[in-house]
Design goal:
single chain, mainly alpha, about 75% helix, elongated
């Protein structure tokens, strides 16, 4: 079990293709999603919504307003844009909160799963009638410490390959999609979260 755990931890670092641990890469990935993509995206959507609502109030009267006048809203369609931005913001705020909870969960896993759960599982294996429970605790510790953060590492690698392709075939596919990761449109960034 110990040799398998060490092999899994080594494999996690190899998949990450760096000297940093897979936990650090997962934490950095989540921090990047939260602070460099999620929060500025919500800020730009809220600001755009306010700007669109303000532009929608531009009204030109064609007859005197005091006599029951009528007029034309110059940019009335901007209210619909503001509503779609509000809807996207309403979806993004819980997603960002979820990412923050996942970040806190990874911090807890780092300090709890490997330090307490794994030794507890080994101690319980010494008691013959507790072996199945101990096996479960060991599996949970390995799953929480290695497999769960590794999902973030793999996702970070996929996004990195999309943004900066090294393989010519991948580069050709991405160019055929007209994908531009540097484009600063809000709905381009929503897909990354």
């Amino acid at each position: 079990v110990v040799a398998g755990s060490i092999a899994l931890a080594s494999a996690a670092s190899a998949i990450a293709q760096t000297d940093k641990s897979h936990i650090c890469i997962a934490e950095n990935y989540l921090d990047n999603l939260i602070s460099r993509e999620g929060v500025p995206l919500v800020h730009s959507l809220v600001q755009g919504s306010f700007d669109n609502r303000l532009a929608a109030t531009d009204f030109k009267y064609v007859s005197p307003p005091l006599l029951g006048g009528s007029g034309i809203a110059k940019h009335g369609e901007r209210k619909a844009y503001a509503e779609s931005q509000d809807m996207a913001t309403d979806l993004l705020i819980p997603a960002i909160a979820s990412l923050r909870v996942q970040r806190i969960l990874i911090e807890g896993i780092q300090s709890f799963a490997w330090v307490y759960l794994l030794p507890l599982g080994f101690l319980l294996r010494l008691i013959p009638y507790m072996r199945s429970t101990a096996d479960f605790i060991i599996a949970v510790a390995i799953g929480f410490y290695i497999v769960f953060p590794l999902t973030y590492v793999v996702n970070a690698q996929v996004l990195n390959e999309i943004d900066h392709p090294k393989d010519p075939a991948t580069s050709q596919i991405i160019s055929s999609l007209a994908w531009n990761p540097e484009s600063d449109t809000p709905f381009n960034k929503i897909g990354r979260l």
